[in-house]
Specification:
The complex is a heterodimer of chains A (330) and B (65). Chain A has 330 residues and is of the alpha+beta class. In chain A, helix 5 packs antiparallel against helix 9. The radius of gyration of chain A is 20 Å and the shape is globular. Chain B is mainly α. Chain B has one domain. Chain B is 69% helix and 0% strand. The longest helix of chain B is centred in the last third of the chain and has 16 residues. Classes of the chains: A alpha+beta (330), B mainly alpha (65). At the A-B interface, helix 6 of A face helix 2 and helix 3 of B.
Chain lengths: 330, 65
């Protein structure tokens, strides 16, 4: 680890100004990923600006039935909020299936969205990695890539986005609120995550010094009947091989509304829009579910080692939809 | 409390805090729940069954008061 400076700030304007004025600086929230990466020389900040004193930790009910989650609200507090369990079970479940109790007590919601990938070639400071060292190449393309992405990949990067809760937020069209030197803005969460393309080092549309202040989840009646299904090598304290965030409303046996997003398979939390379009208006049953899953995964670009994720994702989609509709998954 | 579980929790401060917290927060209904909420605490002697038993003992003793 290299030496770095540390500053603790008390207000949002001060936090933004401090990071803006120091080119090599970064915000520090829960630190559950960032501190590891600094220790491993993957991140080399000159200054870490601790924002844990900022008043951004509430979970607020909005008049229209939506929720405003402060960027510094801890994963554990958000997961346990009664309103979350009742109105947005998929968010609560995704949070509780992530990390471990200690990490959830520490990790912030804003930090969760900004967490870096778990690709071992990114997290080791020596092999080529276009995210860590732009233009150096991607060791994962021909390396051990069993856990890597099959959707949204590029010739420059195939690292999987690791967040669980982001998958639920993408399914529900959450909005990321930020404040920077140019003022405040609201970014749809799907657009908050960038595909790697030719610039995998750029993961979010944030400017240097732009701070996430809140995550807003719009009122969505379909979310009351929602689930987060996570498939992984180990039952606990492990990242997803495949996960599904799903919400469905069935009317007279027909799918009237559906939200579907995938984790563990995409270079970003993957909104399954093809599957959603395929499902709308179809009878709620195994045939429709399987057809939708096939359509979403038709664009997959697996490697020899992670090709199993295609069928695993298809089956997980069918299972999640069957759980919600109490239907037959066959 | 079983000896194996007790000695593991004496050594492992993080595990001890996790055990206290999961009992206080009511996540000790069954072994599956205890295992999930203790998850992330690695025990060098793999005394997991005994740790769960120790947590059950504390839970049941508290319930009997």
């Amino acid at each position: 680890m290299r030496p770095f400076s540390y500053a603790r700030v008390a207000d949002v304007a001060g936090a933004i100004a401090t990071v803006r004025d120091h080119p090599g600086s970064a915000f520090l929230a829960g630190g559950t990923t960032e501190v590891d990466l600094v220790r491993q020389n993957v991140l080399r900040p000159g200054l870490l600006v601790d924002i844990n004193d900022l008043p951004l930790n509430g979970v607020e009910d909005l008049p229209d039935g939506g929720l405003r989650i402060g960027a510094l609200a801890r994963m554990s507090d958000v997961a346990q909020a009664a309103v979350m369990v009742q109105r947005f079970p998929v968010i609560s479940q995704a949070l509780l299936l992530g990390a471990s109790a200690q990490l959830r007590n520490m990790a912030s919601m804003g930090g969760n969205l900004c967490q870096r990938v778990r690709c071992s070639y990114f997290r080791d400071a020596t092999p080529p990695c276009n995210k860590r060292d732009p233009g150096s190449g991607c060791a994962a393309l021909a390396g051990f890539n069993r856990g890597h992405a099959i959707l949204g990949t590029s010739g420059k990067c195939i690292a999987t986005h690791p967040s669980d809760v982001a998958v639920a937020l993408v399914a529900l069209d959450a909005v990321v609120h930020t404040r920077g030197t140019a003022g405040e803005r609201a970014i749809g969460v799907d657009g908050f995550f960038l595909l790697p393309g030719d610039t995998p080092e750029r993961e979010h549309p944030l400017e240097h010094g732009e701070l996430i202040t809140a995550i807003e989840v719009p009122a969505t009646s379909v979310a009351r009947r929602s689930v987060y299904l996570k498939v992984r090598d180990r039952e606990s304290y492990e990242f997803a091989l495949v996960s599904v965030a799903a919400a469905v409303r069935v009317q007279d046996g027909t799918i009237a509304d559906v939200r579907l997003a995938l984790g563990g398979v995409g270079t970003k939390p993957w909104r399954a829009r093809r599957a959603e379009a395929s499902l709308l208006g179809k009878p709620a049953g195994g045939t429709s579910f399987a057809e939708a899953a096939d359509q979403e995964l038709a664009m997959a670009t697996p490697t020899a080692l992670n090709a199993f994720k295609v069928e695993l994702a298809q089956r997980a989609i069918v299972r999640a939809l069957a759980i919600l509709t109490n239907g037959d998954a066959r | 409390m079983t000896a194996g579980g007790r000695s593991a929790l004496v050594r492992d401060a993080g595990g001890r805090w996790s055990a206290v917290a999961l009992l206080e927060e009511g996540h000790a209904a069954d072994d599956g729940q205890i295992a999930e909420w203790m998850s992330g605490n690695i025990c060098r002697c793999a005394a997991y069954p005994n740790i769960r038993a120790a947590i059950r003992d504390v839970r049941d003793a508290a319930g009997g008061e």
